[in-house]
Specification:
This protein is of the alpha/beta class. It is 47% helix and 18% strand.
Length: 309
């Protein structure tokens, strides 16, 4: 469908790999999308369009772009894709620009972004669990190497509308009644693989094939599950630690060619989201009296590598 009048106006705040991929697919399907990103991204897309290099197709998509957050005005749906470290500052600006009826979808790593957004700007955002292996090899180009599906919830008019819109753009979007547990399932995979990939400068497939690296992954997974249990969280399908480890192996195999977002950030000299991943588990473990030495070590080493203590 290409008729834009049947689509809501969509804004992507933080047009990196995640925002570029999902926003790009929505624009390709005919939705009116504005992407807000850095000057190099905006310049490249204005000149050549947004190039989507996916497993299914390679195509340049024309999309509106801006460097200014004010471009979100009149947006009915906002894909909130900034780094977790930018939650507060971005949310405060958005709070003064969006209509009260606008639907804000947090498409970020970590489990407490919705709370941070609400605390900063009284925006009642919806959480989404994002599964995609994508990168930005150069401004205006998104390289997709695995998956590309979403989980939202619980069931409501807003989540049903969200799922319908993504489905129209051929993006699988599942509704879960246990969205908190789903967020923690993703956190398990992120804590298992992101920092190891970054510190080892290794793609997921290499981690999966290394017995020594996999021992680190195994212990990190067990620690996250112990913290989840102490917090009363039930990540679906991960009640058995061995099933959780098998899930981590499946993710690493499905996304064998992916370097973690933490690794991509380190390579670019950018601040990582490790505070929201292994760092979050370290802090929650301390609060709940659950030892998390491996997650704390991964967190501390990534912080050293990025030059921030």
């Amino acid at each position: 469908m290409t008729a834009q009048e049947n689509w809501p106006k969509i804004a992507v705040v933080g047009a990196g790999a995640v925002g570029g991929y999902f926003g790009g697919l929505l624009a390709r399907a005919g939705a009116p999308v504005v992407m807000i990103g850095r000057p190099a991204f905006v310049e490249a897309v204005k000149k050549n369009g947004l190039f989507l290099d996916t497993l299914q197709f390679q195509e340049s998509v024309r999309v509106e772009v801006s460097t200014e957050l004010s471009a979100v005005r009149a947006a009915e749906i906002v894909l909130f894709c900034v780094k977790t470290t930018d939650n507060a500052t971005t949310a405060r600006v958005l709070g003064s620009l969006l209509a009260p009826s606008a639907l804000v979808l947090s498409m970020q790593n970590g489990v407490d972004n919705v709370e941070q957004i609400r605390a900063s700007a009284a925006i009642d955002a919806l959480p989404a669990v994002v599964y995609v292996a994508a990168s930005v090899p150069e401004p205006g180009r998104v390289k997709h190497v695995g998956r590309g599906d979403l989980v939202v919830g619980p069931k409501s008019e807003k989540t049903k509308r969200t799922a319908e819109i993504f489905s129209r753009a051929s993006v699988p979007c599942r509704i879960s009644e246990n969205i908190e547990g789903e967020l923690w399932t993703k956190l398990v995979w992120n804590c298992a693989l992101n920092a190891v990939s970054a510190l080892g400068r290794a793609k997921y497939g290499l981690i999966a094939s290394s017995p020594d690296a996999w021992k680190v992954v195994e212990t990190a997974v067990y620690e996250v599950l112990a913290v989840a249990k102490a917090a009363g969280i039930h990540p679906p399908g991960l009640e058995d630690p061995k099933a959780a480890l098998a899930g981590a192996l499946k993710i690493a195999t499905q996304m064998a060619e992916a370097l973690s977002s933490t690794g991509q950030d380190l390579n670019r000299g950018k601040r990582t989201e490790v505070d929201s991943l292994n760092g979050y588990i370290s802090r929650r473990g301390a609060e709940l009296g659950v030892p998390t030495p491996v997650n704390h070590a991964l967190f501390a080493l990534v912080k050293l590598a990025e030059g921030r203590l």
